[in-house]
Amino acid sequence: LRGAAFFLVHTDAARPFVVRSAKILTRAVGAAFEVRRTASGSSIAVAEGIVEVAQDKPSPSQEKAKQISLRLTAGRQLAISVDEGAATLDAQNVDINEIASWQKGQLAINKWLVADVVDALRRNYRGLIVIQPGLLTKGRISGVHDLRKPIASLRLLAATQGLRVRQISPWFTTVSRF
Q: Which one has a higher pLDDT value, 87 or 4?
């Protein structure tokens, strides 16, 4: 499954709140944070408080590799991407107002893979978006998109990639190179 969820957790040391996304555990005791799972990996962004991020049950081949275990504070984000079997960690500062911006009808993105942006737009379109295979394998983009107008955002995104969007009906849209 892919998507995003925002959690507002009240302080209770006796009952920590844990979210599992892929093989990553995010533990919070009094925090507001977003966990997002995409085709390219997962990310955790903290709006307030502190969360602990750790790897859940490493596979036997990963036993000797360095395990993920760190704390994120408000205004920090950790992106875990998997490319050709190798995991990459990217911790960076993030604007707190951009965290879970989808709750306000916007998609604020910073260096997202094009395919992940399209997946987010798909979740806000009442129909089907069909993309010619192999088109969205590369490219990262940044910006703010209006989720109430996913096709307009898709057209803007497609224009940056040299692609064409055709809305066949209110419920069926295609993206292709021709």
A: 4
